[in-house]
Amino acid sequence: MSARPVLGIICCTRRVGSEPAQAVMERYVRSAMMHGDVAALLVPSLPDLMTAAEVAPRLDGILMTGSPSNVEPARYGDDGGEGPFDPARDEIALSLIEAMGNLKRPVFGICRGFQEINVALGGTLRRDTSASTDLIPHHAPDGAGFGAMFDHRHGVTLAPGGILAAALGRDALEVNSVHYQGVATLAPGLRIEACAPDGLVEAYSTHNNDAPLLAVQWHPEWDADTNPDSKAFFALLGRALRGDPLTSQGQRP
Predict the structure, then answer these.
(1) Average per-residue pLDDT for the chain
(2) Where exactly are the structural domains of the chain?
(3) Given pLDDT bands bounded at 50, 70 and 90, which one contains residue 81?
(4) Which among 62, 121, 141, 184 has the fewest CB atoms less than 10 Å away?
């Protein structure tokens, strides 16, 4: 039996009791491994002890996960903003995205990962997606329970000829929406894959130095075992790690 490809999954800096911890929610790991049929390694956000360039060659692709933390505004030329922040993750994540691009290996993102990939490639973020008058609410009301946050949903329109439209076989779907930040300026070279009814970019793709890159603002890992659309996202991840360029209609790797 040939070895399965190895997916790197980035960790966040958390606190467990009184101690710092490197952690990732198991739903990301299980969903990617089960529905992408890959092995996985967790990548710690410890830039004082390692560089992304050291670990990237050992990985066949990476998944940048969601997180309670926000990307620090200084990373995209802004100031202010509300935390919590995780500067150690910012450092490893942005440099890991660059390193994987240099190696021509796939990059996938979910929620915070979607945002940090955009920043890594030169885009910017807006920080008002739950309350701006020009947007639909992209997060459940404050005080909503944990499950209720992931029950907050809206429709998205898929771009004709895109990777997601081809994989899902239709032009629209319902997604969960659990984010306070979103794309302000899309990074050069990124192709829109999905938009919310208010026009906010909800998914994008590109070929980062000939390697597939795909990211979504929603959380396919939340219901991957029961949602065919979520399974399809992770199936794309598995295909990309096995060398499929995921070329969409009219697009060349």
Answers:
(1) 92
(2) 6-241
(3) confident
(4) 141
